[in-house]
Structures are given as C-alpha cells and as structure tokens.
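Archive transcription. Copying these from loose printouts into the bound notebook so they stop getting lost. Printout 1 of 2:
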Amino acid sequence: MGPVIVAMSCLCLLFFLYQFYKLFDQRRDQHCYLVHYVCHKPSDDRKMDTKFCGNVVARNKNLGHPEYKFLLRVIVSSGIGEETFGPRNIFACRENSPTLQDGILEMEEFFIDTLDQLFRKTGVSLQEIDVLVVNVSLLAPVPSLTTMIINHYKMRDDIKSFNLTGMGCSASLISINLVQNISKSHKNAFALVVARGCSILLTNKRAFKNRAKLRLKCLVLTHLGASDEAHTCCMEKEDSEGRHGVYIGRNLPKMATLAFTRNIAGIAKKALPLKELILYIMLKYTRKLATLNLKTGLDHFCLHAGGVILIEGVKTSLGLSKHDVEPSRMTLHRFGNTSSSSIWYVLGYMEAKKRLKRGDKVWMIGFGSGFKCNSCVCEVMRDLADGNVWGDTIDGYPPKSIANPSMEQYGWINQEKLMVKNWIDVYEELNVYCLGGNKKV
C-alpha cells in the first residue's frame, strides 16, 4: 500500500501543479499590449483658419444677430489654432446640406490612411487580425463601417467584428475595454480598434511584449445614463424648426463633473499606491481637507481635448500643472476636438516630445454623451520617441502664444453691450465670395 499511496500523492501534487501553471499561463496571456497606433492628418488644402470659419458663419442665412454673436465668440475663445482641418463639403459650400456619401467618403479616407500605415509599420498581416472594433459616434451607414473595412481589406470570414455608434468622445476606451475582455478568452489574438481618426493594433501575444508601446494596466468605465439629467444633457436631435444637430445643455458641466468624480474614485483604487489611499482616508475621516496626490501613481495625464474649459477644469480639480495639460491644449490648438480619437493625438504629442519613458504610467481620460467618463492607465513598455502625426510641426510647439489671431478683430464680441458699428464691420468683413464660384453670400 505504501508505494501506491506515494504514487497517488505524487499524481495529486502534479495535478495541482499543472492546474496552477495553467492558471499562471492563462493570466500571462490576458495582458493587453498596445503594439502601435496611427493618427490621421488631412491634406493641407483642408485647413480652416479663423477668417475662413468666420466666412462659413456669415454665409449661413438661418442666423440672426444673437447667433452670429454666439458663434463668433466660440471661434475667438475656442483655443483652436489656424491649422485645424475641416470636411470637404464645407469647402464646397455645402455645410448646410451634407450627404451620407460625404460622411462615408470621409471615413474611408481616415480608415485607409491610418490602417495602411499601421500594417506597414508593424509588419502584421491582414489575415492575422482576429478582432475588429470600429467606433464613430454620428455615422451609422448600412452596411456598417466595420463591414466597409472588412470588404476593402478582404479580411477573414471568421473575424469578430463590432461597430459602435452613439457612444460619444469616450468611445475609444470602450472599444479598448471590449478588446481587453475578448483577450481573456482568446489566446494569441490580434485586435484592431479604429476610433474615427486613429487606428490602434492590440494583442495579448507574449512575443510582442518587447515590441509594444504600452501595456494596459487598468480601465474604469463610468456611465450615468440612468439619470434623466445626464441622459439628456448632450443629444443628437432636431430643433423646433426641424434642423438636425447636436444639443448641448447648460447642465453638461455638472454631469461631466459628477461622472469624472466617480471615475476617479474607481481608478484611484487600482492605480495609486496603498500608502496614498490610506493617507487620504485618514485625512478625510479626521475632517481635514483631503486631496489625492495622483502623481504618486501616475506620471502623464492624457486628457480629452474637448475644449479649453474642459481641460482647464480638469487641471484645476486635479491640481495639475501647465506642463501636465500642455499635450491636450496643444492638440486642441493643432487639430481641434477630434472626438474619440483625441486622446491618441494627445498621446502622440507626448511621444513626439520624448516624454514617455519605460515604466511611466499614463492616465488616459475620455468624456462622452450619456453621460460617460471612461479612463485607463497604461504602462510605457519602452522609451518612445516616434514623431507620428506631429513629426513635421512638433518643434514649433508649444508656440509663444496660443491666443486666437482674430482676438484683436473680434475680441469685442465678448462684451455684453455691442455697438452697431461693430456689427457693420463684421458684416462687411464676412461678406465674402463662396469658394469656387462667384455667388455672393
């Protein structure tokens, strides 16, 4: 009996060791690596300076004096520079009558440019892609944009494809979360995330660990959609006169603050050291002013470039420096609000400035309708210095001044009392000829 018992004991031990190894091996394959990403840069003939934007406003016959005042104020105070880009239908004087085909052609241009570069730079074959996730909020053609990409590149018929719409400016992190969850049950998989103007290649293959730029550490999604106030603060809808557009309520900052606060609570538990969390709790319960020092666990802050007020609001609430928010401010200045892809343009700025060093932690934060605040923390896998979409302009950033060049001309627009002469000057200045024709507008 003795040898039998010993043999059985050895078998049991081997079985448990094997199960432990399987669990360990499975967890290793659940890591989500960001191999590479590419952001789209349109051609120079689509640049929209402030004067051109003013002309677009002026030729809109549906606007009265209050609307002109509001739009010019937005242009002057936007924080957007003179080299941002616009869609082709605006240059064709068709901003009031965009077609479905306009949107599809624009997305084709974005997708093909970024995906071609991504495959070329990584050396990954089209036939190796196992998962495809596309997110574009305000365009949902049939067949889907995902199908359009599969057709163009003749991808495998067993590819797992997902097309996300209506998810707002935080959608790229929702896509990343989807890939992360799929990676837990599919070994050695490649996934593509196409977030409007950016394409991202991810994998859980251990062989790509040293080639990857980032490794996903943790991700937190916050959705306040159960609240009617949050649900309706930002909506695609028609106004009382049947004009289609996006409505933004005055309560949006309130909902954004609430979503952000709850998201921070979730991300802090996962990203900050235990010592900082204990200190925060002790201060809070002794009725002292308690603030989290996020820099104890985070090195870089990749904020959605949704606007000056948003960026400055996050800067103030988190106690960040001008240096911390520089990438987001410069992205807004150079490219404007690029929706769900904006955080990747911000990341590109950090990389082009050679800020990202091995072991650094990057906090990426996105806001979106619903209302949602999504964020993730990534670890930099190696020193990064790719010029990417910023390559030809990075040496000029930050500029000496990011003040709008038309501030002197239209700065009076922010005054409550406006003189009639000011409006006459505006109408004379903006009374321009439509591009490509001789019809005065």
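Printout 2 of 2:
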Amino acid sequence: MSLSSYRGIFHVNSRKQHRGLEKLRKFREEIGGKMRIVLMGQAAFGAKTLEALLERGEEVVAVYSPPDGPGGQEDPLTTLAKEKNVPVRQPTSYKDPEVFADFQKFSPELLIMAFVTAIIPAPFLKFPKHGAICYHPSLLPRHRGASAINWAIIMGDVRTGLTIFWPDEGIDTGPILLQKEISINPDDTTGSLYFNHLFPMGIEAILESVDLIKKGKAPRIPQDESKATYEPPCDEKVAQIDWARPGREIYNLIRGCDPQPGAYSFWGGQKIKFYNAHFSPGKVEQPAGMVIDIKRATLAISTGDGILEVERVRVPNMGKIAVAEFVTKSAIKEGDRFTGKG
C-alpha cells in the first residue's frame, strides 16, 4: 500500500474520530455531564443551592460568599462550603484585580449567582465559558431591584414569579433564560411567598437552567424595556403607614413589609410595627388610625374604608409579641389613635 493510501486512511479515521468525539460530547451533554461551576450567594438560599448542586454530582469548584459578620459569624453558605470541602472566597470588594485573578484560576465554565446583593463587575460575568446566570424573585422586567417580593405585594400584584437571567452590567437587565409564575394569595406576606414558593422554586429553576445550558438549549430572551419597573429597597422610609391611604393599600404595605422591615405607625411616642394582619372593607365612622376594638387576639384599627385587624406587633423593648400580650403590658385602649409621628 502506498504512502498516499495510508494518508487517506489516516484522514478518514481522523474524520471518523472527530465525528465520534463530537457525538460523545453531545451524548454527555444530553445525559447531563459535569461543568466547572462557581457559586456566588449567601444565606439559606445560597446554601440550599450548593447542597442541591452537590447532591446531583455537579462540580462546584469554588464558593463566593460574604465576609464573616461581627464576632466571626459565618454565612450559612460559607459554613456548608467548608463542610463539603469546597474552596471558599469572601472578598470585601469584587473590584480588586487580585480577586478577579484568583477567580480565573478556578477555570469556571459557569457562574451561578444565588442571592447576590453585591455589584459584580462584568469580567466575572464574561470569563466563564457559558457566562453567568442569576436568580431574581420577580417576573422581569417587572420589579427590578433588591426588594422585588416586597414590592409585588405592596403594589397589589396578584401574580408574580421568578426569573433566571443572564446578568449584564445593568441592574437586573440581562436576557431571560427562564421564568416561573405563581399566584399571590390575598393573605400572602413577603415571608410566606418567599419561603413557601419562590425559595424552593428558585432552587429547581437553577438546576433546570444548568441542564438547559449543558444541552445547548438555554435561550437568551431580551427583556421588554417598555414593561420594566424598578423600585428602591423596601426600608423604614417605605414602611411607614399613611392612614390617609385606602385600607387595602395599608394592608398590602403591612403584608409586603412582613417580616422585614415591618410596616409601622406611632402610638404613645413609640414605633409600633404590625404583623399578621387582616382587612375587611366596609363603612367606618371613626377616623383612620383609631383603635375601635380590642379583642383577645386582635387589635381592630379603622381605615378610611374598612377595618384592619392586627394579631402581632413589634414594640420597643418587647420584641415581636402577640396583641394579647401587648394589650396586657401597655395602656392601649379603644379610642387611642395611631399617627404618623412619634
């Protein structure tokens, strides 16, 4: 056989080998091959994301979590990563060039952002082979910002959900990978909506997104800027009750600020925060903010168009307590009025 014949066989075999390797690569993607993943996150959601990734055999090569708190208090994600022998990084700033240089050494193929409040520079998002994905607890582009769940309830939305998106340099502005939608029930609070629905659904959505990326089937759907909203953090400025507002709006504010930061008003010079509230619309003769009835378990307060019943309050030097205890320990009585000033 001539040398040229051997060369022909070699080239044919090379082409077959290439096709075989390509088929193997696609097969591995279809059955869920591993990717080198860096996880950024914090709190219980970040820890649960790490746990879920490791349970199904994903290769998490590093975890980025917040610096320890006062007294060396570790974030739950930090603690779990150490228990699982996953390298942990806790940078005080992601703008430090050495932090990015260290990040590159992990050779990540995907960056997953699970409850990240820090601003992450673009190089971190672009360096991994498949880029970065981020969890956000709203149906983007509605409710961009750090308090998406709070604002969905405060604004009276009846539906919300979560988004896994490809972050860019804007605030929650990157293309959408997938979304999950749920109803907001009339008595839902920020706490119930998050822990009962958006938290567990978020973990599942991240895993689903990883699978789509592996298979090369993860979409990048541009957000519709004409439908975008952005709200500021839900803080003490937002949480103060204006008794001149309709009762339903006050009720939504209380639900949206439960458990944090807690919607509040003033009585006897003290800031009183309200929790576990219910609203009944109807004609009320008493001025808004007045205590019109004190029952065993609730405090009934008038609004301009209904009655607000509150089961729990947070009082200075008492913490969060049941209304029955508050009534016993304070001098509050029917006819007293909550106001906007201390």
